[in-house]
Amino acid sequence: MYTTLISAADLSEHIHQPNWIVVDCRFNLADPGAGLRAYLESHIPGAFYAHLEEDLSAPVVPGKTGRHPLPSVETVAALFSHWGIGPEVQVVAYDDMSGAIAARLWWMLRWLGHDAVAVLNGGWPAWEDAGLPTEARIPSAQPAKFIPHLRPEMLIDADRVEVIRKLQEYKVVDSRTSDRYRGEVEPIDPVAGHIPGAVNIPHPDNVSSNGQWLGPEALRRQFLEVLGDTPAGHTAFYCGSGVTACRNILAYKHAGLGDALLYPGSWSEWIVDPDRAVAIGG
Q1: Are 48 and 83 in contact (CB under 8 A)?
Q2: What is the SS3 assignment for 169-231?
Q3: What are the residue ranges in the chain where pLDDT is below 50?
Q4: Which of 180, 213, 216, 247 would staple 176 via disulfide (CB 3.0–4.6 Å)?
Q5: Per-residue pLDDT at 282
Q6: Domain annotation covers residue 108
Q7: DSSP 8-state secondary structure symbol assigned to residue 41
Q8: Cβ 23 vs Cβ 52: under 8 Å
Q9: Is 246 one of the annotated active-site residues of the chain?
């Protein structure tokens, strides 16, 4: 069973096995239709397509939610059932951003109790670079019964973040790039800055320049340098909208550090309430 990352070579050996399901998660925030267009042009054989905003998120409620709120358990379970994700199925998610989007699906499956899920190391570029087969055909689904086993302990809400951000024994981690964390730039959300008390571990630092993930030991050193001996259950990650924070949670898990928490609403939800404090600087 693969539970964090899988190589293109390893995936290619299992691609045609009936108990393996691949999901293409390519998405571009600036062009929400780009991922589907790319999928229809070419994808890993047998892969289904998951749209970040239509499949892996609920509709935004202005003034209440962040940009990518989690969908209901019932909605997600119906989608997973349609794809054919039963209890013995190995799922592999990929994108073209070294897991920045695919990690959202990885996290959601684990949130609903399905541990046999991994992200393709290097994503679509690694698959193409290896000269592995592709196709444009949309696969026929073989539905199964996905039975969710909800793990509510994997996430926290804004009220809980407000409490733990002031406690020394907890760490709230901003997963965005350092310039966004410091409030020097904000290309997406209407307010710049970060949650007061949060530390910064940018999610792009989990991968090398060639798009491959760092090894477990390198990732472990990277996290421990900032988090020290804070345990996984006291470590909560957020980002702009609860998507790329999952990439940090995946890296944290791959490093052997355990299951950290996610604040799904993240920065875009935090700032809808003007009474919540905002910090600027490092």
Answers
A1: yes
A2: CCEEEECCCHHHHCCCCCCCCCCCCECCCCEECCHHHHECCCCCECCHHHHHHHHHHHHCCCC
A3: none
A4: 180
A5: 81
A6: yes
A7: H
A8: no
A9: no
Phi and psi angles of residue 12, each rounded to the nearest 5 degrees, phi first: -60, -25
262 contacts 249 by C-beta, under 8 angstroms:
yes
Q: Which residues pair with 21 in a beta bridge?
A: 91
Cα(71)–Cα(59) distance, integer angstroms: 8
Other beta carbons within 10 Å of 115: 11
| pLDDT number for residue 9 | 97
pTM, rounded to two decimals: 0.96
Contact 206, 91 (CB under 8 A): no
Do 229 and 176 fall within a single domain? yes
Domains: count for the chain: 2
Options 120, 173, 192, 239, the catalytic residue: 239
Residue 109 lies in a domain: yes
d(CA 142, CA 131): 28
How distant, in Å, are the alpha carbons of 144, 204, 266 from that of 176? 37, 8, 10
Are residues 89 and 199 part of one domain? no
Q: Which domain holds residue 256?
A: 153-270
Count of Cβ atoms closer than 10 Å to residue 14 Cβ? 14
- Give domain status of residue 17, yes or no: yes
Place of tokens 């609903």: 112
**Is residue 9 assigned to a domain?**
yes
Residue type, 23: V
8, 130 in Cβ contact below 8 A? yes
